[in-house]
């Protein structure tokens, strides 16, 4: 009996010793935890006071960096995605506030269908997003690119009340009818219009109240159905236009400085052209199908011309002689001459026009005639 008591007392003493040791360890752990928690509080306080270098910049500098992130105005950016200013609003609260209060970020709006695939499929979603951009753009002039696969007037609904701010407009249409609602675009400087179908459209649209319009790009045989203030233009591109219609327009564009032409199949009635004098034209780039009458080129008088590009067949049967006559008649001083689809050698042109600094002659390519 006494032996059992002695053994239990020994066990109890051992248990007490183990408990005391564990309690000492627990006390040490609690002390370590307290020290770690204090160190953590100190680190958090330092982090709260820490400023990332980019966030120490003035808001005006950050806004300027944001503007450099986007394509150069008037190039447009998609409504959503990595190249959209919407992405800048997802970084932090400060960046969101700066982006939302920088109107220049929201002034170039792309409504081209290929760039709205990720938007809500319902029309209301696109309209709401467009309306958001317009509201954030403040009073800035707007650059707009519009596709043709939606009802154009519906998509443009949030923009129509702000048409007095439209500065650059690129529009892809199926017909001229949507243009008929345009009455006045007081800030419009450039207008790029292309028709997505070749269906005939007999409706003629007159757009004359465009006081600042200076640059126009038109792409389709329906160009004659659009009447613009031609006399004030300084840059003009006409693609797939009949030569006769082209001459009729060029007669009115006396202020042109730059002109690019893509001439389509000539009308059988277009044989003789009246002279067209373009006193300020400096750059002329002409492309044409093989059967275009050379008379078209010979009707032009361009005394200020410095750069000329044309396919050789426009000056057949004797391109060097015809070009010499054109230069003499115009009285121009060319700096650069580019002849495409040429059968006459580079040396022949260089020798005949040795006074032109840069003469480049390109032989015909194996591919069929294509527009740019």
UniProtKB/TrEMBL annotation:
Superkingdom of origin organism: Eukaryota
Record keyword Coiled coil present: yes
Record keywords, A-Z: Coiled coil
UniProt domain F-box: residue ranges: 55-111
Cross-referenced Pfam families: F-box-like
Coiled-coil region list: 12-39
Keyword Coiled coil in record: yes
InterPro entries in UniProt: F-box_dom
Protein's recorded name: F-box domain-containing protein
Organism: Favolaschia claudopus
């Amino acid at each position: 009996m006494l032996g059992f008591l002695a053994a239990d007392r020994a066990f109890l003493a051992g248990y007490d010793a183990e408990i005391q040791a564990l309690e000492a360890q627990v006390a040490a752990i609690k002390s370590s935890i307290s020290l770690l928690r204090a160190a953590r509080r100190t680190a958090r306080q330092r982090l709260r006071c820490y400023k990332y270098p980019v966030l120490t910049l003035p808001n005006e500098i950050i806004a300027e960096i944001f503007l450099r992130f986007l394509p150069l105005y008037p190039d447009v950016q998609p409504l959503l995605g990595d190249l959209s200013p919407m992405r800048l609003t997802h970084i932090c609260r400060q960046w969101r506030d700066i982006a939302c209060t920088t109107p220049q970020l929201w002034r170039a709006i792309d409504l081209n269908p290929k760039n709205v695939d990720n938007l809500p499929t319902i029309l209301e979603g696109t309209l709401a997003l467009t309306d958001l951009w317009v509201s954030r753009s403040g009073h800035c002039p707007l650059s707009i690119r519009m596709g043709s696969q939606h009802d154009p007037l519906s998509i443009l609904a949030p923009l129509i009340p702000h048409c007095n701010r439209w500065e650059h407009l690129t529009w892809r249409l199926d017909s001229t009818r949507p243009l008929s609602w345009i009455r006045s675009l007081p800030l419009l400087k450039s207008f790029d219009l292309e028709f997505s179908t070749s269906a005939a459209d007999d409706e003629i649209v007159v757009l004359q109240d465009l006081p600042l319009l200076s640059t126009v790009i038109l792409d389709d045989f329906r160009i004659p159905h659009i009447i613009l203030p031609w006399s004030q233009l300084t840059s003009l591109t006409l693609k797939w236009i009949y030569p006769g219609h082209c001459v009729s327009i060029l007669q009115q564009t006396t202020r042109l400085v730059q002109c690019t032409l893509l001439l389509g199949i000539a009308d059988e009635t277009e044989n003789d052209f009246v002279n067209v004098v373009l006193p300020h034209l400096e750059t002329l780039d002409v492309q044409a199908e093989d059967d275009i009458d050379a008379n078209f080129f010979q009707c032009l008088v361009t005394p200020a011309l410095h750069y000329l590009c044309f396919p050789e067949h426009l000056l057949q049967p004797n391109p060097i002689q015809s070009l010499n006559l054109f230069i003499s008649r115009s009285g121009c001083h060319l700096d650069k001459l580019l002849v495409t689809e040429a059968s006459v050698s580079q040396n022949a042109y260089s020798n005949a026009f040795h006074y032109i600094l840069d003469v480049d002659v390109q032989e015909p390519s194996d591919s069929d005639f294509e527009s740019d």
